[in-house]
Structure formats: C-alpha cells, structure tokens
Amino acid sequence: MEARDEFITALRGEAIGNVNSQSTVDEQFQNQVMRPILKIQNDLFLDVFRNYVAKYKNDFYSYSAERKLQYIENSIQKDIKFRNSLKGMVIALFTISEYDQYIKNSSQLNKRMMNMLIERLKSQVQLFELQPD
After folding, report:
1. Element (H or E) spanning 3, and its range?
2. For residue 130, what pLDDT band results from cuts at 50, 70 and 90?
C-alpha cells in the first residue's frame, strides 16, 4: 500500500490554493488533496459529463449558456447515481490516510468536492458548445 500512496501523492503534486496555520482541516484537505485530484481528472470529468448529456439530455447543446450552467449544477446535485460516480473518481485517488481523514467528515467534504466540480465544469462550459460526433 505504501507504493500506491507514494505514487498517488507524487502524481498529484503540490497543493493548489493557500494552506497555512489559519486554514481549517477541511480547507487543508480541499487544497492539498481534492483540488489537485480535480485538476488531474479534469479531462475525464469533461468526457463523463459529455456522455451523461448524450445518455440523458441530448438537446443540452441547443440550450442557452445560462441554461447549460443550470443543467450542469442540477445534474450533479440531483442525480445521486451520477454524483456518486463523480465522487468515486475523486476518492479513488485518495491515499489510505487521506481516505481515513475523509470519512471522519465526509458529508462536509462531499459538499466542497461537488461544489468545486460544478464550478470547474461551469467554467469550461464553452467546451460543451458543439455536440460531439
């Protein structure tokens, strides 16, 4: 297990965002663990979302920009199976000790994780302008 944990932490690299002595435990976890994972998994999240749209709401591509943003948010907040799938893509890149830390406050950390993912997808909505071939 140590080799896996070392590989994962090396893959992720440095924290993204400020981490200092005033940071809460959740903020530290967010910036040291979740943000780097979201960055690494970005292309996968984009493709997974495209697949979700193709499967459930193919007319997404004809929506206005504002409606697309709302759809992104609603799909992640309201579709529990989809949200759990996305969470799994993040949790899979936790080390064992990070997972142990995560389960102590999973509810709050899940909220942070999904909010960051929603904002990440919304900030890249222009990549969902054209329907893929």
Report:
1. helix 2-12
2. low
